[in-house]
# Entry
Amino acid sequence: MANFDLVIRGGTVATASGVYAADVGIVGEHIAAIGKDLAKGAQEIDAKGRIVMPGGVDSHCHIEQPSSTGGVNADTFLSGTRAAVCGGTTSVICFAPQFKTMHIEQSTADYHKRAERGATCDYSFHLIVNRADQETLDALPGLIAQGHRTIKVFMTYPSNRVDDAGLLNLMAVARRNQAFMVIHAEHHDMIMWMMAAMTAAGLTEAKHHCWSKPPVVEREAVHRVVAMSELLDQPVQIFHVTCGEAAEEIRRAQSRGLKVFGETCAQYLTLTADDLDKPNGEGAKWVCSPAPRDAAEHENLWNYIKTGVLDIVSSDHAPSNFGEAEGEKLPDGPKTPFTRMPNGVPGLETRLPILFSKGVVEGRIDLETFVAISARNPARLFGLANKGDIAPGKDADIAIWDPDVKTTIRQANLHHDVNYTPYEGMAVTGWPTTTISRGEVLWQDGAFKAAPGRGRFMARGPYDFIKPRGVFPGPFKPFD
Ligand code: URP
Ligand code: ZN
Ligand code: ZN
# Structure
């Protein structure tokens, strides 16, 4: 009888702490052994010349997320997780949204049903709170105890934003209930003022989206979140940092010992404001927030990644079709003003190949850092103890890479359910050839095979990495 259900043989194992030649033996859903010349498995995968890394953990993706107006973003749990798996990602953290008109317990329960129907890989949720009223504050401890251990706050977007008083109240709930906070940090009133002034001046094309929110809009909001985090001793992660100015606020916070973490996304390492400068509304394909910057900012961000200030690179997969229906990129046709274009770009499947190519192949980061920012660090920050590493006892979530294959990203070859990719025509080197989730091969040599709903909810209990420091800036200790 074989010792292992599956052996990945002869590859180069890459983790956040080392790169070495070894076989990986899997029994059931878990990694059982790592070593040279492991005994034969019931199934074998030849990984010679390949990299064997932990499956990616994408801690920021909007999948089948209903909107307050009744629409849903373009991907379902089935298509979103299919795209994830085909791009080497095996865990996703998406968003159970609150609506002004629905109790947060109800919208979270509804979102679970969507995921149970479709998810093909494992998933967890951040709770989007857009109504910091007493009813919501009272509901949150129960939801956190059920394993929804992050509260997400938007500081902008008219229908979603929470004001500073609300944000402080939510931080206090998080602090009392051992939860984490993730924040979309942009200064709402600055954006609204700019949008109104630019509309009055007739500046309404997609490219003007970038003009309406220069880096200072982001920097100011990051600075404010850091101050609030310091006041209440509540650990936070700043989502989708796009520029050196904002990253520098995070670096300063970290140098004071604060538990402030920073994420950037593949789009902010590759796209620029020039991508939005396309005729007939086509620039809408690249509209996302905060706005894409320029090549100099890409290098700034890589430097903050190298120094660990930004320690996670996610996709912020937020798909809307390029079309003219309500909820699509051009609801008013080619002349749709940027203020009416839905924000966000798809990127679940392309996140790892872009990061590998621009990061490792082009020499900006080493393989260990690639694994850290795309798998180990998000698993650690969000309390997914079984994910993000290749070690005995961990879940057998593995992506096997051909590091040499040269590909051009084409919509026609992707597996999401949105009708374009913002990376059309981008040349990349390296792509995952096999993806394994809890011991099951889901993606191999161009074929995807997974039962809808096989993915499991990852409930997240309290964990040490996000423990507050117990340090307050004044004599009053609000949580004693
Ligand atoms: O433009 C973006 N990022 N849209 C998705 C929602 C968000 O802000 O993260
Ligand atoms: Zn955001
Ligand atoms: Zn997002």
About this structure: The two ends are 58 Å apart (CA to CA). Residues 23 and 38 are 6 Å apart (CA to CA). The longest strand covers residues 4-15. The chain is about 30% helix and 25% strand.
